[in-house]
Amino acid sequence: MKSIKLNEIFFSIQGEGYHSGTAAVFIRTANCNFSCSFCDTDFSENMTLTGAGILKHIKSFPVKFVVITGGEPTLQTEAISDLISLLHTDGYYVSLETNGSSLNRMGADWITVSPKDWVDPGLCTWLCKQGDELKLLYNKQDLSFYENSDFSHYFLQPISNSNFDLNIQQPSLQQIVEIIKKHPKWRLSLQLHKILHIQ
Ligand code: SF4
Fold this sequence. Notes:
Blueprint: E1 4-13, E2 23-29, E3 47-49, H1 51-58, E4 65-69, H2 77-89, E5 93-98, E6 110-113, E7 130-137, H3 143-147, E8 150-157, H4 173-182, E9 186-188, H5 192-195
Parallel strand pairs: 2-4, 4-5, 5-6, 6-7, 7-8, 8-9
Antiparallel strand pairs: 1-2, 1-3
The chain binds iron/sulfur cluster (SF4).
């Protein structure tokens, strides 16, 4: 089994989207194929582990819910697919978070796509238009463009950096609320972990 380049593994609650508030083990893979100007995620490579090594590490946590996030996990398709298979044999439910630049969901039980085509349409491809949840960082995009896709849940989320402040988002939180009132297909996603100052 191929080793996986990782940034970190930690146990917390999911702060965003459909599973907000749910305890989960987070496996953050290293590296990303995009370079969004607002990105505050550390996806530097800090360690390399095999799937078996990851499984051994996360068994100490009292949940069977794993979120594989990045960086961009689909950059390591083969190794992550093997990891997901291994997690399944041990009864884990696996959620995959991706920027949607790959069509491969790698066997994950749940897929969250956060497209970044609006950042740079030339460089940030959005290929994966089907999945469980679409999470759009709201920057006054035309929502009908994103609704032309096949997701079970649609979320709008304020763009924020690590110094999250509900009062200084642009567009403001109030503007996003008004947009959702006009487009009720969408729901509000806040980054609870930043509001609560937890990992
Ligand atoms: S796609 Fe996500 S992780 Fe990658 S640079 Fe953009 S915001 Fe950061």
